[in-house]
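Tokens as discussed.
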């Protein structure tokens, strides 16, 4: 991992008041959590073929039939 930005980030955070430093820390923690929990595209390949052809056909038919339909009385 390229850590060239860390010194610049730290230098800029040093100029912020404590409450803003806490905000930055919380934001970085949230970014880290999101990054660690992401699902990589490669991992989705594990699911390839897990839906039967029959179920895919049913799903396709329902999508083609019902998508784009508006029920004006729904609301």
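Sequence:
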């Amino acid at each position: 991992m390229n850590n060239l930005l860390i010194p610049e980030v730290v230098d800029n955070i040093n100029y912020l008041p404590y409450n803003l430093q806490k905000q930055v820390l919380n934001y970085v923690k949230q970014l880290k959590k999101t990054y660690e929990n992401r699902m990589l595209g490669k991992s989705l390949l594990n699911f390839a073929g897990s839906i039967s052809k029959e179920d895919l056909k049913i799903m396709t038919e329902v999508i083609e039939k019902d998508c784009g339909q508006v029920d004006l009385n729904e609301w």
